[in-house]
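Deadline looming. Please check this record:
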Amino acid sequence: MKKLLSLPPNLVGSFHEITELPKSEWFCTNDPVGKKLGSGGGTTWLLRAAYEANDEGRTFDEWLAADKRLLLHAGGQSRRLPSYAPSGKILTPLPVFRWERGQSLHQDLLSLQVPLYKRIMDIAPKGLNTMIVSGDVYIRSTEPLQAIPEDADIVCYGLWLGPEIAKDHGVFVSTRENPTELKCMLQKPSVETLSSLLADHFYLTDIGVWILSDRAVKVLMQHSSAEGKELDGDVINYDMYGEFGCALGSEPVIKDASVNGLKVAILPLPGGEFYHFGTSHELLSSMLAIQNLVSDQREIMHHDRKPHPSIFVQNTEVKIKWNENNRNIWVENAFIGAGWTLTKDNIVTGVPENNWTLNLGEGQCVDIVPIGEDHWAVRPYGFNDKFRGDLAEVEYLGGSFAEWAKERGICIDNIEGRHDLQAARIFPIVSNVDDMGVVLRWMLFDPSLEEGKAIWAASRRVCADEISSEANLCRLVAQRTKLRCQNFAVIAKNWEHSVFYQADLESTARDYGRYDIPLPSPLPSSASLLTRTKDAMFRSEALRFAGKDGGKYEEEAFSLLRQGLTDEALRVRQCPRLSVYADQIVWGRSPVRIDIAGGWTDTPPFCLMEGGNVVNLAIKLNGQPPLQTYVKPCSEPHIVLRSIDLGASETITTYEELAAFNKVGSPFSIPKAALSLSGFLPQFCKDQYNSLEEQLRAFGCGLEVTLLSAIPAGSGLGTSSVLAATVLGALSDFCGLGWDKAEIGHRTLVLEQLLTTGGGWQDQFGGLLPGIKLLQTERGFCQNPEVRYMPDALFTLPEYKACHLLYYTGITRTAKTILAEIVRRMFLNEHDELAQLREMKAHALDMFDAIQRMDFERMGRLVGKTWKQNQALDLGTNPPAVEALTRLVDDLCLGYKLPGAGGGGYLYMVAKDEDAAARIRRILSENRPNDKARFVEMSLCQNGFQVSRS
């Protein structure tokens, strides 16, 4: 999705430098200086500028249809939020939410806004390509998004808000019979009007999120042009909401045939929340409301020590202590020395290092802005100042400007721009920090300070608009970055009460490496195991970004994870006892699994932090469970391991040989580890023996363990995990260990940790348990999935069964390398990955719902969405050879995916119907990528793991 931004003029030139966002994805411009275009005219100006810069020889219609795009209007003067007027409200730094994981320590309003808009545009039908939003709001949606109508020209999102709020906004009115179709749009209707509407109408409050079809975009642009053309003529002042919006609907307020003819759908944003950041008051009230969204102490990841929750401090060095009288404090990119006093309703931004004595009274705010290479603009202001009105009447610093000027011996008539406080040249430019402090005292609270008055009188003075246009934003951001880096040591040291380990540690590690910041002191052993794993991976990543070797810390992270996952199981030692007759064979067999939604959410450490949801199905191949294990007694006191499919065997006579399950390339790592966990190594056994031979004699016999994996390695069907579970299950029966399927599944997780292959729990439970099911776990080291079985009609009824196809691609890729990279990002709370995993977790519930409702088409489409989600986690999931295959059958499938980690193995396809399935079989049989590629018959397995005796 392309992002097109309308920004303050001064920000346009430095936007890419200070944000480090790529020009290929982020285009920005500004409205013509001194000319008001309105939201509609501004949209036209922005689209014209973006097209001119990136047309690549295409017509405007071709360019418009080529991409999804987000248009974000953020070019206002920011009169009521002076602290972020120079850099634009859209780049306002916002603190990490105390209940959220994976946010960056240098996040801003823009970075918080865009993910929701992308989610919406990802599901927007073809032709609905342009989203238009405002830059000074943060909108959350806590529930899954609903489908967007395909036949609409415009889609508008709204919230169900009461009349006391709606009266100050636009509202979408619909009839009760057709609640998603717009009847008309009203701008700031009275409470009485809204109350009367409710008798037979609904209304949604506009939140400023509109999606336009290409046709609607062109109509809007024509109305914003003096000549009525998209690309020709001067852009005129045209309001998208008050004019264009009020001409929309079946019974619009404004009659305009071309606009009236556009079909409009209105949708309530599911679980929607709306936070405005347009004023100083809203900066604090919105941030406080967001921080207090969660009151459950179990969900709050850090409990800070501030005396009041409305104190927000970022990128700042603070030498004072807060007290119980402090309220509504915002300090960012500033130095607060020991001589400062703050009270309430104070905002302090941009202040360089100083040794001032400065007392901010209630409602007094300070903004210092770099000008040029070595000067600063000094801007004190009041918390509630509107910066609008003649100086004789306007409020300033909480009182009358006229009174303020009189106290300081200033004649209002001599101030340039006196007609409007925003244009009044009252803010001095200084060249040193000492003068800055003196003039601040004079302007804020000491009108008799002659030195301050002299500095003010001798200085070049600028107005608020000139501060924004002349600000050196690179200097401003450089100071913020320096202070943030200095803060790292403080918040890392205070890790128990700070956001350090809940933040995006990859982003933090990048800063540590980039700016050569010393690593924090080691965590104490009393820190939680999960926090220690994160700390170790963070150290590894910081060293990597610094160009150094962090391998030992990465290994420590995985070692601590293994400890957490295995400690409980290993604490209970086993006592194997021969439980069969001398001539009996124990036969274990299992199906394999196909994961169709939620895969990866079962993988530690993500599932330990947030729990996992996976939908998978147990399948037989060619009518048989493909993974089998045979265990039988042998007369000699040794253990014989055989693999039918590999044609290999090994005889084990010592504990040392059995313990070598980590040997690279060994075909018997799984059975060795399984035997160890079953109590045939001293550290896992209740009874102690001097040798393996002695233990086997006491056991009553040796063991022969034979494996059959009638499926290629790297299949993506969970082969190694399910085989491990099958071996453990067979050994449990042979040795009388009494493990049920839940215990077998958990011990498989332990086994994989012992082998250092890692992995989650869905593979083994997918094969151990029958049919199609939703597997869910809660957070914590105890990962015992709750199972919710689903009807199998979509997989077994004749009209559907033939539509499920399984094709072996002959392309293999081991999951371990994919797994290590994805797990590394899990440790680091990497923002984009956590967001993707949460979406995948919710997606599993959508799949559950589709199958419960027996909606075959939706189920197939959701399989396709799963495949896109997997690729979003790792592009290597879909190598070119696989993509070439899927291109051949794309139009014949509702959805397809490579099971498991992807990269090769089997391709699971859901054909649109039986005819499509037959055509897929013919096409892929005629276009085999290699001599191993083939179709394999799959069928749902209703048994899961089975064990029996001869």
